[in-house]
Amino acid sequence: DALRQISPEGKTYGLGIRNTTQRMAVVNLPDGTQELLPLDGGDPQLIPGLNAGDRVVGWSSDGDTFYIARPGQVPTVVERYNYKTGKREPYLELMPSSSAGLVDIRPVMITPDGNAYLYSFRRYLSTLYLGEGL
After folding, report:
1. How do residues 33-91 score in pLDDT, each as one tens digit?
2. Gap between the Cα atoms of 59 and 66, Å rounded
3. 96: cis peptide before it, omega within 30°?
4. What whole-number distance in Å separates Cα of residue 98 and Cα of residue 105?
């Protein structure tokens, strides 16, 4: 297959999540919004109902529902969001077993069936010493 352009000229996108069944991708715009981009051509569409800071972290196998999270939120709540109906519902909460020094949780990824996920987190630990009589 030859390479072909699928996005409008001059538009900048970040990493996307692809749905192979419907041949669409969720792509991140520099201003923090996200669009649905048809992979077979057509105009991109803003995704209604997402709040500032929401990130699509997976596309469910039904094709109409995204898994969304707010990167950096501690604990991180993953929600299921049907972009056609606007329905949002909590799905799972991510939190390491110890919150000591925890700064944020990101990235988050989830499989289409919702049965497997992965995430990473940053923590800063330090030791404070008191010196006397120096």
Report:
1. 888 888 887 888 888 888 878 888 998 988 889 999 988 789 999 999 998 899 999 99
2. 4
3. no
4. 13
- Using the structure block, give the residue that is written with the tokens 């669009």: 35
**15: Cβ–Cβ under 8 A, 6 or more apart, which residues?**
27, 28
What is the model's pTM?
0.80
Could you give the C-alpha distances from 121 to 31, 75, 100, 105, 127, in angstroms and in order?
24, 11, 12, 4, 20
Read off the amino acid at residue 50: L
Q: By the 8 A CB rule, do 14 and 29 touch? A: yes
Helices and strands (H, E) in the chain, number of each type: 0, 10
